[in-house]
Automatic annotation (TrEMBL), chain A:
<dbReference type="Pfam" id="PF04268">
    <property type="entry name" value="SoxG"/>
</dbReference>
<protein>
    <submittedName>
        <fullName>Sarcosine oxidase subunit gamma</fullName>
    </submittedName>
</protein>
<dbReference type="InterPro" id="IPR027266">
    <property type="entry name" value="TrmE/GcvT-like"/>
</dbReference>
<dbReference type="InterPro" id="IPR007375">
    <property type="entry name" value="SoxG"/>
</dbReference>
From TrEMBL, chain B:
<keyword id="KW-0560">Oxidoreductase</keyword>
<dbReference type="Pfam" id="PF12831">
    <property type="entry name" value="FAD_oxidored"/>
</dbReference>
<dbReference type="InterPro" id="IPR013977">
    <property type="entry name" value="GcvT_C"/>
</dbReference>
<dbReference type="InterPro" id="IPR006277">
    <property type="entry name" value="Sarcosine_oxidase_asu"/>
</dbReference>
<feature type="domain" description="SoxA A3">
    <location>
        <begin position="527"/>
        <end position="610"/>
    </location>
</feature>
<protein>
    <submittedName>
        <fullName>Sarcosine oxidase subunit alpha</fullName>
    </submittedName>
</protein>
<dbReference type="Pfam" id="PF01571">
    <property type="entry name" value="GCV_T"/>
</dbReference>
<dbReference type="InterPro" id="IPR041117">
    <property type="entry name" value="SoxA_A3"/>
</dbReference>
<dbReference type="InterPro" id="IPR027266">
    <property type="entry name" value="TrmE/GcvT-like"/>
</dbReference>
Length: 173, 1009
């Protein structure tokens, strides 16, 4: 897939490539030998971002080359503990949305509360974009990251680029 | 005649003239005008023809309640019918056309129906057009459709170039209505610290206050009301947690604090492809409806002639646009508020003909002021007729308590009427807020103790100001303040103490109800007094409905069409309810109101669609190999949200030829299928086997790691829901393949059972459908193609049929399943989706000398049918159980339970007369029509021909050179060799013999090769 970039509107949107992703399902009480985000939050450790997806589900994002090592570490750490860890590096598309109106652009598409008072760095929400499932979080630098399934990456891209058309600022946030 | 005065008009900019066109005439207005004010400024009092009688109609109101001044706006792709002139902001080049007239507005042939109004009463259609029955469709309906109606629907080929979008917002308090009460609410809630959104449907803040309340001379906190509005807005502007939006209408209030608001972003600034409307989808803790009140017309004979206008609208045109409704207007009222219209007109030098006040009670301060101003006031008077054909030229005065005997004639060119005020309770009522009758103000107002309630049982809608029946300035600001504080406090925002705003108090004399003028009007006058201008409903129509037994207000509404037009009866409802109550001899609150439904005023279809048009209309899912399919010119078919290649035609090859070629290539050599869309769900945990034993009819827990097994999933009712191959990855882990369309709902089904019933079982699932590209390599040469890629031992013993293995295939990490949906030697190879296209191209290169080629879903279907394999959705339709399909072998006999087992034991499910799967072979080799029924002798209980089976799949088999089919037939498996008749829709009767559904290689030697 060619890497796309949209810079002509009220937010800057681009494909993010090269990330590996690991989905982990394990009970909320299980201690991990790594940072575990609070409910509805992301946390960062080195180059790894960990997203809270549900009480018993986490999603790790790390450089693609580190996926095998991460899976190995998790298997080791959780030996004997009921869990499911899966490499989902190819399952999703990842986008970066940034700029002063980034939250507004996404609030045209997602029914969640994206007002700056409520959506700050570290916040993660699973929701939808248009008619498909998507998740969104805010990086420490204020940029937004959006993921959706890879099969609908074009659809989500089209919606986001349309929502960021020049002159469509809402002025709500 | 209506005219622009030399001065005045706080909304218009006289230095910026604007040109527009109405019915082809070029007219001038000013920036800031509405289309209605600009038409009035040009003495265009006649603006449309009525719906039923084609009567000449003029502008009645100044806002969204306008019933008459509907125009067709713009042309071609931009054309929109039924746009209200009163809410259309004027812009340079605006083009409007009047509606419902032919050939022209002033000369309308349809007006002949007006003379027939005596024979066109309520319910006329139902009574007259009943017989003969066949006439309805071919004569009456086309006739009625031609003569009735408002604007034309746009050309179906027109394409709206404007853009629309949605916006989701979550706030604590939403306030609908930017009048004085709403602004006061926003201040109170905002000062308390709540997140507030204040919306106003018009382009301006302050609502009616600057035009009402002594012509805006009243004050709040000793500040004139218009200045006070500005000061409040300035303070709201300093609060970062408060937003204020004009041109944004609260369209609908729904359960649990959900509100739709309609923002007209670009209607006043048209531009090619610009953003026009934005639909706000708002979640809110509390909703304050500060939607004001709407003035009621008076039902007097001739009240629909152009020149008759609401007294409040007359004030608006005067103050906001510097337009006088006439040179000698008459004011007609039953309350004090209309006197302000007379005073303001007089202040602007307009000669007020008289004030006709229907009341006989004590005159109040305004009547005194009128006398002091030298205005003529006729107390206890009424109007019994209006002179003029296309506009008001004079009136006949009568005694309001009489039968209309003429007392005198007064020459006037316009009438400003006021029958009192009705709170705009629409949004309050949308999600269940109740109303109560106010016997002092003669209106329905919100029953404040019976608001719509949220999930927590707490009321979440609060009415404020005039919308709550608090009609005076002093009461409205106080009520708005209290509403804002209450909303904030209920959500936990208390803030610092705030002082209550204090406004001028003015004593008003009591209103006296006037539902028909004069009160003893005979029927000849009642049938000239209009209630609903837009739908041409008169006092006599409602009374007729009452006489004919329509006691329920909802029935009377539908019988007479009162309140059913695009304005939804904003002006007519209360008057109509009062007339109905009077005719039935019961009090108004006993009659009640009709139901208030969203939207408050019509919203555009574009705003509902938002940005989801064109490529954004529907998510189209793409496989990792989709680009390649498109480059090959594949012909696609929708499968769920995917678009899968149906076949890959070469050159000008027909689809059926392409399918035949793909099948023969695969059966004789080797073919490739993109199977990435198949669902792939991993199920892991100590109880994974136990779960799968419940989900599938077969026993999965005994499957050995490295092996695959075909399984069936049923619903609780026993019906076959999905099928697929399960592979055991290790002791604790299974990979469940589902159908393409089943991936998401089967995953949800698993989680549903795990989370609600078997929450203590140790199982996790993950839907990995999109992680993998899956490619089927199928045909006698498939093993050789795979071996050429190298890296894995795929010999017959190393990887037997229904086994799987993993390793590096051509350097790509792969999992290979030896499974077959075609009956051929076949492999399905799963790799990371990112590497799908790389592997696909390697297969193409490696199999070049075998003529390897991709095949599509149709070849897949034909090959599975040749082999007698069922397809979910073809052989199943939600009423078919596995036993019907001869799949008993896939049901574990010894299992205590599985989902659907109990249902499959019910008497109807084990009935030997169920239709069961068989193969169907046409006697002449032709192809049976898909879905055709096999007829039986006799008729059913409803007189239709009896049937004994139906075709579920039917294809031409290029392998066998004949038609093959499967079907469900009454006791089919017991009747092998029987011949059945299948009448087709083409008039032919197809004869087919019952045979085994396995047409190809029944021994299974090929897939096991």
């Amino acid at each position: 897939m060619r890497k796309r970039q949209f810079d002509g509107g009220i937010a800057r949107i681009e494909d993010v490539e090269g990330y590996g992703m690991v989905s982990l399902r394990v009970s909320a009480e299980t201690a991990l030998r790594r940072a575990r985000p609070q409910r509805g939050q992301a946390c960062w450790e080195g180059e790894t971002t960990t997203l809270w997806m549900s009480p018993d589900e986490l999603l790790f994002l790390c450089p693609r080359a580190e996926v095998a090592g991460l899976l190995r570490d998790l298997a080791q750490d959780l030996a004997g503990v009921h869990h499911l860890a899966a490499d989902v590096s190819s399952a999703r598309a990842l986008f970066d949305v940034r700029g002063r109106n980034a939250l507004e652009v996404m609030a045209k598409l997602m029914p969640i509360d994206l007002s700056p008072q409520k959506f700050s760095p570290g916040r993660v929400r699973r929701s939808r974009i248009g008619q498909v499932a998507a998740a969104i979080w805010m990086q420490q630098d204020g940029a937004l990251r959006v993921i959706c399934f890879r099969s609908v990456a074009d659809y989500v891209w089209d919606l986001m680029v349309d929502a960021a058309r020049p002159g469509t600022e809402v002025g709500a946030f | 005649m209506s005219t622009r005065l030399k001065s005045g008009g706080r909304r218009i900019d006289r230095s910026r003239p604007v040109t527009f066109s109405f019915d082809g005439a070029r007219l001038r207005g000013y920036r800031g005008d509405t289309l209605a004010s600009a038409l009035l400024a040009n003495d265009r009092m006649l603006v449309g023809r009525s719906f039923k009688y084609h009567r000449p109609r003029g502008i009645v109101a100044s806002g969204s309640e306008e019933p008459n001044a509907l125009v067709g706006l713009e042309e071609g792709d931009l054309f929109e019918p039924n746009q209200r002139a009163t809410t259309t902001e004027l812009y340079d080049g605006l083009t409007a056309r009047s509606q419902n007239r032919w050939p022209s507005l002033s000369m309308d042939f349809g007006a002949v129906t007006s003379r027939l109004s005596r024979v066109l009463p309520a319910g006329f259609y139902y009574k007259t057009f009943l017989r003969p029955r066949s006439f309805w469709k071919h004569v009456y309906e086309p006739l009625i459709r031609r003569s009735a109606g408002l604007g034309y629907a746009p050309n179906p080929e027109a394409r709206d170039p404007d853009r629309y979008e949605h916006f989701y917002l979550h706030v604590d308090v939403l306030i609908v209505g930017g009048g004085i009460a709403g602004i006061q609410s926003a201040l109170a809630a905002g000062r308390a610290g709540a997140r507030v959104l204040l919306i106003e449907q018009s382009a301006h803040w302050g609502g009616r206050s600057p035009a009402d309340h002594s012509g805006g001379k009243q004050s709040v906190n000793n500040i004139p009301v218009d200045k006070y509005v500005d000061e409040c807005l300035a303070e709201l502007g300093t609060m970062p947690h408060v937003q204020c939006r004009t041109r944004t209408m609260g369209a609908g209030v729904y359960d649990h604090g959900y509100v739709l608001a309609y923002e007209r972003v670009g209607d006043h600034l048209p531009g090619e492809g610009a953003l026009r409307h934005r639909l706000w989808k708002i979640r809110t803790g509390r909703i304050i409806t500060a939607t004001g009140a709407i003035e009621r017309p008076i039902a007097f004979p001739g009240n629909d002639l152009p020149g008759v206008m609401l007294a409040s609208a007359a004030r608006d045109y005067l103050i906001d646009f510097g337009v006088s409704m006439g040179k000698h207007p008459l004011v007609l009222a039953n309350n004090d508020s209309a006197y302000e219209t007379a005073f303001l007109l007089q202040d602007q030098g307009v000669d007020v003909a008289a004030i006709v006040d229907a009341r006989t009670g004590d005159a109040g301060g305004v009547a005194q002021e009128a006398v002091e101003r030298g205005l003529r006031v006729i107390r206890g008077g009424g109007v019994s007729s209006v002179k003029g054909r296309r506009r008001v030229e004079g009136v006949t005065i009568c005694d309001q308590r009489g039968a209309g005997t003429a007392l005198e004639e007064i020459s006037c060119d316009a009438i400003a009427m006021s029958g009192g005020w009705s709170p705009a309770v629409h949004l309050w009522s949308h999600s269940g807020g109740k109303l109560t009758w106010d016997a002092r103000q003669f209106c329905f107002r919100p029953d404040v103790d019976n608001s719509a309630r949220g999930a927590d049982g707490a009321p979440y809608v609060i009415a404020a100001g005039a919308a709550s029946g608090e009609m005076t300035l002093a009461a409205a600001v106080k009520d708005g303040h209290a509403a804002g504080l209450r909303a904030a406090a209920e959500l936990g925002y208390n803030g610092a103490a705030q002082s209550e705003p204090v406004a001028t108090r003015v004593e008003e004399a009591a209103i006296e109800p006037v539902w028909i003028m004069p009160s003893q009007a005979p029927v000849t006058l009642r049938e000239k007094a209009f209630l609903d201008f837009q739908n041409d409903v008169k006092v006599s129509d409602v009374e007729l409905a009452a006489r004919e037994g329509f006691e329920s207000v909802e029935h009377a509404k539908r019988y007479t069409t009162l309140g059913m037009a695009t304005d939804q009866g904003k002006l007519s409802n209360i008057n109509g309810i009062a007339i109905l109550s009077d005719a039935l001899g019961r009090p108004i609150p006993q009659t009640g109101t009709t139901t208030f439904r969203p939207p408050y005023t019509p919203i555009s279809f574009g705003s509902i669609a938002g940005s989801q048009t064109g490529p954004r209309f529907l998510p189209i899912r793409r496989t990792p190999i989709q680009d390649w399919h498109e480059e090959q010119g594949a012909y696609f078919e929708p499968v769920g949200h995917w678009r899968r290649p149906y076949c890959y035609p070469r050159g000008d090859e027909s689809h059926s030829d392409a399918v035949a070629r793909e099948i023969l290539q695969t059966r004789n050599h080797v073919g490739l299928l993109d199977a990435s869309t198949l669902g792939k769900i991993v199920v892991k945990g100590p109880d994974a086997g136990r779960l799968l034993d419940m989900l599938y009819t077969g026993r999965m827990s005994t499957l050995k790691p490295g092996r695959c097994r075909y399984g069936l999933m049923c619903s609780e009712n026993g019906f076959l829901m999905d099928d697929g191959v399960v592979a055991r990855l290790d002791e604790e882990t299974f990979l469940c393949h589902t159908t393409t369309g089943g991936a998401d709902h089967i995953h949800a089904h698993m989680e549903d059972w795990l989370q609600t019933e078997w929450w203590d079982w140790k199982v996790y699932t993950a839907n990995l459908t999109e992680q993998f590209a899956q490619i089927a390599v199928v045909g006698p040469k498939s093993r050789e193609v795979l071996e050429r890629l190298g890296g894995m031992n795929l010999g017959r013993d190393a990887l037997p049929f229904m086994g799987w293995c993993e390793g590096m295939l051509a350097g790509i990490s792969a999992r290979i399943f030896r499974i077959s949906f075609s009956g051929e030697l076949s492999y399905e190879i799963a790799v990371a989706a990112d590497q799908g296209i790389e592997l696909w191209e390697k297969f193409l290169a490696a199999g070049q000398d075998f003529g390897i080629s991709p095949y599509g879903t149709e070849a897949l279907h034909v090959m599975r049918a040749e082999k007698g394999f069922i397809m979910i959705g073809d052989e199943t339709d939600g009423t078919v159980i596995p036993q019907d399909l001869g799949l008993d072998w896939a049901i574990a006999k010894g299992k205590d339970d599985y989902i659907g087992k109990r249902a499959q034991m019910r008497s109807h499910m084990i009935d030997p007369d169920r239709w069961k799967l068989v193969g169907l072979e046409t006697v002449d080799g032709s192809v049976l029509p898909e879905g055709a029924y096999a007829v039986a002798s006799g008729k059913t209980s409803i007189g239709q021909r009896a049937t004994q089976g139906r075709v579920t799949s039917s294809y031409h088999s290029p392998t066998l050179g004949r038609g093959i089919a499967m079907g469900l037939v009454l006791r089919g498996p017991e009747r092998m060799g029987d011949e059945l008749e299948f009448p087709g829709t083409d008039g032919q009767v197809y004869k087919a013999r019952l045979v085994s559904p396995v047409f190809y290689n029944p021994e299974g030697t090929k897939q096991d090769a």
